[in-house]
Write a structure and sequence with these properties.
There is one protein chain. This protein is α+β, with helices and mostly antiparallel strands. The chain has a single domain, classed as Transposase IS200-like (Alpha-Beta Plaits), CATH 3.30.70. 37% of the residues lie in helices and 11% in strands. The chain has a 4-stranded antiparallel sheet with strand order 2-3-1-4, covered by helices on one side. β2 and β3 form a beta hairpin. α1 packs antiparallel against α2 and α3 crosses α8. The chain starts with 11 loop residues before the first strand and ends in an 8-residue tail after the last helix.
């Protein structure tokens, strides 16, 4: 369940959690793809086991009744971000519990670990303001900038062109889906349940560019 926040039906939330002790929770792309697949499979009233699903057919499963709505996501080495809308009472908590339990079991078996992988209960921020909700789409999708330019918000972005190219090639976020890339994983998202802030890929690309400029204290040299 969430920490110090009651989740309400029809409301939007920014969900995130770190590895226990800030440890890395994704050690290779295989781990990342596993989590991405679980984002799809865990969002259902049904239970699915990977042993019962043929490889490559994970996104063909009919999930029937969804338990929450997903608007955006991003995976980093030691944490994740998910934008969700509460579909039914307890839906988000059920979704995150299934997601966390399934991934922790996979991780502990693969790496011969024991115990909790995540840092306690997931964190949730209520997005009850329209400008803030719109901003969170960019905030979540801008997280991977830290991979190639860790201190960009403090010292300034080093190279805008390189950064934009990296973001548009980063597979483990939903940014590519908003750019209109044809990917199987776009089935994770329930865009129709969220405000239509971005009519096309160029609009969200411009929004990201604006935030890169705004949050970088030295501006954005193209280089």
């Amino acid at each position: 369940m969430s920490r110090n926040l009651e989740l309400s039906e029809g409301e939007f939330y920014h969900i995130y959690n770190h590895g226990n002790g800030d440890r890395d929770i994704f050690l290779d792309d295989g781990d990342r793809w596993r989590f991405v697949k679980l984002l799809y499979l865990a969002n259902s009233s049904n239970q699915y086991h990977f042993s019962d699903i043929s490889f490559g057919e994970e996104f063909d499963i009919d999930r029937e009744d969804l338990i929450t709505f997903v608007g955006a996501y991003c995976l980093m080495d030691n944490h994740y971000h998910i934008l969700v809308k509460e579909k039914e009472a307890g839906g988000i908590s059920k979704f995150i519990q299934k997601l966390s339990t399934g991934y922790t079991m996979y991780f502990n078996i693969k790496y011969h670990k024991r115990g909790s992988l995540f840092e306690g209960r997931f964190r949730a921020k209520h997005l009850d303001d329209d400008p803030y909700l719109k901003y969170v789409f960019s905030y979540i999708h801008l997280n991977p900038v830290k991979i190639i330019d860790k201190g960009w918000k403090e010292s300034g972005l080093k190279n805008l062109t390189k950064t934009q190219k990296f973001l548009e090639g980063y597979k483990f976020s939903s940014y590519l889906d908003y750019l209109g890339k044809n990917r199987t994983v776009n089935k994770i998202l329930n865009k129709e349940e969220f405000p239509e802030y971005f009519i096309n890929g160029e609009e969200i690309r411009e929004e990201m560019f604006d935030w890169l400029q705004y949050e970088s204290p030295r501006g954005c040299p193209r280089g």
